[in-house]
Amino acid sequence: MELLSLKEHHARTLLIHYRWDVEKLLAVLVEKGKSCLFTEAGVTVVENVDDDAPLSSSSTITCDICIEDASADTATRMECGHCFCNNCWTEHFIIKINEGQSRRIQCMAHRCSAICDEAIVRNLVSRRHPNLAEKFDRFLLESYIEDNKMVKWCPSIPHCGKAIRVEEDEFCEVECSCGLQFCFSCLSEAHSPCSCLMWERWSKKCHDESETVNWITVHTKPCPKCYKPVEKNGGCNLVSCICGQSFCWVCGGATGRDHTWSRIAGHSCGRYKEDREKQTERAKRDLYRYMHYHNRFKAHTDSFKLESKLKESILDKVSVAEERELRLKDFSWVTNGLNRLFRSRRVLSYSYPFAFYMFGEEFFKDEMTDEEREIKKNLFEDQQQQLESNVEKLSMSLEEPFQQFSQDKVMDIRMRVINLSVTIDTLCQKMYECIESDLLGSLHLGTHHIAPYKSKGIERASELSSCWNTKLGSTDEYLPSGGTSEHDRPSGSGSSDDSGCSYRKRAKKEGGGFFDLNLPAEIVDRN
């Protein structure tokens, strides 16, 4: 508003058009100028006051929409200069709001792309449909979140009603004040060093294949006719599918139904067929490769869950140790080591899905030669192995019954935990550097981004201080409570702590001033 000398609704129209990306807006301003910036966004700034003067009370106009005469007090002129009767304007606004276009309602005039004044829309619609006017206000409010790549709703279930805003990189992992940790980019669980695309494929693969495929592979063979899995329930190698097809259990080839001591009708599985053997071997190799990475991923995930349950017992050990008369009174090294164990175990767990796709053929088949792939694979696995070894040592040290040990032995465990924590932190940093520089950084495809490693763990969002006093029907901007008014700060700004992210909470209805947004929009509308 200050930079471009604009009214509030004009500034918001610009921000909505450029999806609240202030840097992009300013870049267009510098490259193309103010006039082009306004034209593309549909902003009409009236410089001549006479053109924007209200209609005379005694004058009448002919509405070009309904072709009827209307008095000055039943007609409205927009800033673009087009004037129509209030009934036509109201019907136009109602249709656009119900179609979900309330964030950018354009003028009714032919080939006019100017955006209508929010205050006029709100005023005319509220006379006939007050609830629809509230819906219009909510759409404007939620535009800041749903159209803004730097602000997203927390994906918690049930929904906590809060939104997270990051200050810098959108490829990061955050923690809402409700306690949920998630990837800000794809809104799934925190999964670095996996990219969002890798994690999406891995989740689907695990959900579809992890247990079922393993059992089917071991206990069944596909019917050569209908391809349904068939389980053998007898000793004879001539089996029949429910579709009626008979086949040989040894090689899976289709046969006739006659079976004697010496032969099976229409079949001989003793002949070697190279193509079929290659396909079978490739399928087995792919399955064993998947099982290798999945088993290790699941092992570390299970360890993380068990170690999380052990947190209370380890803290109980600390309480017992503090009651003893030892020279060592500070046991913060235990909680610090425990936090380091949780963070590194999570990193280690998700490094296996990353390796599965990084060194497979699904994403980067043409990006590396076989020799380059093998070298990079060995480099990554060496770092992975070092991290794994030290994480297990740290886990074992923290599970020691140190509350029963002597002073000297407790000091030994303390130094071991501290040293292992530092070593593990360094190894995690090196693994991320290896992934970003040597692995993903050297590829031509830029579709894989990972959240940066944070030594202190996933950042927790801080709550913005509440300083809103909006009234329904006013021209002030409707933003979630906990934000700051545009009268106080530029739009899109907000306080945050060193973590670089903050959250906003949907406004709750109190009298007529706010409307309830703690539920999804469709539920609010229905209520």
Automatic annotation (TrEMBL):
Keyword Metal-binding assigned: yes
InterPro entries, A to Z: Ariadne, ARIH1-like_UBL, E3_UB_ligase_RBR, IBR_dom, Parkin-like_IBR, TRIAD_supradom, Znf_RING, Znf_RING/FYVE/PHD
Catalytic activities: [E2 ubiquitin-conjugating enzyme]-S-ubiquitinyl-L-cysteine + [acceptor protein]-L-lysine = [E2 ubiquitin-conjugating enzyme]-L-cysteine + [acceptor protein]-N(6)-ubiquitinyl-L-lysine
Domain RING-type: 59-273, 63-111
An annotated Gene Ontology molecular function: zinc ion binding
Pathway: Protein modification; protein ubiquitination
EC number: 2.3.2.31
Chain spans, region Disordered: 478-505
Pfam families reported in the protein's UniProt record: Ariadne, IBR, IBR_2, UBA_ARI1
Signal sequence segment: none
Named cofactor requirement(s): Zn(2+)
UniProt record, GO biological process: protein ubiquitination
Keyword tags: Metal-binding, Repeat, Transferase, Ubl conjugation pathway, Zinc, Zinc-finger
Biased composition (Low complexity): 491-502
Free-text function comment from the UniProt entry: Might act as an E3 ubiquitin-protein ligase, or as part of E3 complex, which accepts ubiquitin from specific E2 ubiquitin-conjugating enzymes and then transfers it to substrates.
Annotated family: Belongs to the RBR family. Ariadne subfamily.
Identification of the protein by name: RBR-type E3 ubiquitin transferase
Originating organism: Populus deltoides
Lineage start: Eukaryota, Viridiplantae, Streptophyta, Embryophyta, Tracheophyta
